# Entry
Amino acid sequence: MSAGAAVTVEVCAATVTVGGVTLFEGLNLTVRAGECVVLYGRNGSGKSTLLRCLYGTQRLSGGVVSVCGTAPDERRLDFRRRVSVVLDDSALFDDLTPRQHLDLLSRSFPGTADRDTAGWLARAGLDERADVPALALSAGQRRRLMLVAAVARDHDVLLLDEPERALDTAGRDWLTNLIAADLARGAAVVVASHHAPLVDRVAATRIDLG
Ligand SMILES: Nc1ncnc2c1ncn2[C@@H]1O[C@H](COP(=O)(O)OP(=O)(O)OP(=O)(O)O)[C@@H](O)[C@H]1O
# Structure
């Protein structure tokens, strides 16, 4: 995406201190539409924390964060409509099937352009499991459903925390293509990931949290 694309995520001089420990300090980050920033670093370095700050479920200790031109606040419907996430605490409805999840999403996010539920499920490798309750899916199938649900509905920003977890080799290839296609549609993506082929394919910028 060109350098002239809209800035969608902006973090200025961000600091987070928890329990007396400073996870990061003075962090700056800009993500434009169609651009992907990858967060990496050791366990406990603050990747999930930074993603939560971008979604408004955790506050910075210092600095400013702006997502879609506003302070992040996942309690606001207009914010959730623009920002789609798969974070550590993301969950499925155990009793609903993959098809029902996508149908529910297309009703909850009425602007969604591509309502081809069957196509999304087939590309996610879930077509044969489309009518099975989420509780009965494998860990990798549940992860595929969370990811496809996040990407299939309209959004301007996509936040992903180690989305490759539980995916097999084919699933990781699918994930890489999913993010690449989302970027081509103009989404701004921030992803914490240790999956090198994904990072190599999609990252415009890499941020090492230590
Ligand atoms: N709200 C909080 N209260 C107390 N400690 C917290 C809080 N948020 C984060 N931490 C601590 O901050 C550190 C960073 O956690 P975080 O989950 O952001 O790291 P991470 O880089 O995502 O780790 P991993 O690679 O293991 O997923 C951890 O030691 C965690 O226990």
